[in-house]
């Protein structure tokens, strides 16, 4: 048993390493550098960075108060709220994308938004909306478990020492939940960088307009331009590595799922 | 003075029902009760963490029932100290001062003063996670005391410490009260705290206070069988202990001395369970080291047992079954002998501040 399981572990390790190695070393360094300076890839990197950072900030701003309410307060319908907030986790991003497309594309409020100049369908704004919708539940769950881990008595003491409710939250609870906040933000950001299905559905795949890195990878592989596709993939792998290291480093008191 | 008037609050499994209480300024008040009696929720309600369902609270003549915790000037120290783990000891202590936006140099002065008082000046730059239980306790006290609270609430402050640190901490608490003059309300289920610290005690059970009084009074005259049983120890005898062979001899009041199997000398409180005392009409011949003559002061029936209060130079409570009480033909004024083993006497040193 021991020999078998160790051998299997070794084989799996080798296979994964070889697959990733093949991808990263596919194009010679010169070609990779040239691809990275290609205007299309540079546009994709920039668009991915901007949309993922904005959507992560939106997720943090919404998830922190919502997770705090779920962790601390009792209110009617709390269980239902918990459930509904979790559903998008189990939803395939493509399905989430279709739902968003129908919501923003066919309903009166979707049209009203478009008239107000906030068009979501097939626009860069749509990328942010799709990323927030898919990632918000993760952020909420991570923050909820982080707040659960902070004994409310810390806040009680802070209040007897002169804090308002808000003061106690920002000076005590949030700093004590900071590992969850950092890990959650990094995970949310990397998921936003890699989001494909929901973005494809809601924002479309328009070259040089709604072309994020995963979309660039998809468009270029469809067009047969392997070098550009590999360049996009290499960057995405780099991002995964950064995320993994950050989360491993902080995972002492963070539950991701 | 803290005055609580028919306070009721319910939170999950814990509650306080129609509770009234007065605690005088400068008093060391201990609330004693079994786990789940509602002691912690009472403290938190006094601190203002939970709004009460009904009832009112006054502090120094001012009603504070709906005042926010930060405006009450009441300090609180929890059993697990609740030091902020992301802040250094110094930042923990100055936390309350920063909320007041006090100038930095004044903060530093006050923190230095309170750290010196609690002998934790050397810990300032460390994080709470690296401190021992006793050290954390002192930091938590310093954090509350630096704001000079009118009342300091202590939630089982001594239980988490080992027995040696405990003894030291009790002396410390007495010293703190003497130096700062702060009113202290302390909840516990530890009797030794009561003997050495309390001016007055309240016994709490099932969300209610069943008895309030000076410790000796409550121990001598428990209000009901619950209190009697809960306190268990019926006798607290203050006296002076001197070494005598491998025992100590304790002299109290104008009574004869008695022996205890202990090595604690000086001013002490001796405790003795009422059921360890044998009452007889003639001197009792046995290996027991103590046989004292006295008279019966009171006979109080409690359920299936009878509590006899004797005068043997100091008051002594004994517990008899109804049957043996009848056989001995006891009545007020009867002359009897009380016999107990030296090993049944528990000796606690009196902390001098």
- What would you call the structural class of chain B? alpha+beta
What is the correct CATH architecture of the largest domain in chain A?
Orthogonal Bundle
Instruction: Please summarize the sheet with the most strands of chain A.
Output: none
Count of individual helical segments of chain B? 10
Compute the average pLDDT of chain B: 87
Number of strands of chain A: 0
Any low-confidence stretches of chain B, pLDDT <50, length ≥5? none
What structural class do the secondary elements of chain A suggest?
mainly alpha
Counting copies of identical and different chains, the oligomeric state is heterodimer
Q: How far from one another are the termini of chain B?
A: 24 Å
Q: What is the end-to-end distance of chain A? A: 31 Å
Strand segment tally of chain B: 20
Series of secondary-structure elements of chain A, N-terminal to C-terminal: HHHHHHHHHHHHH
Q: Helical proportion of chain A? A: over 70%
Largest interface: A-B, 18 and 24 residues
Q: From the coordinates shown, what is the CATH architecture of the largest domain in chain B?
A: 3-Layer(aba) Sandwich
The total tally of domains of chain A equals 2
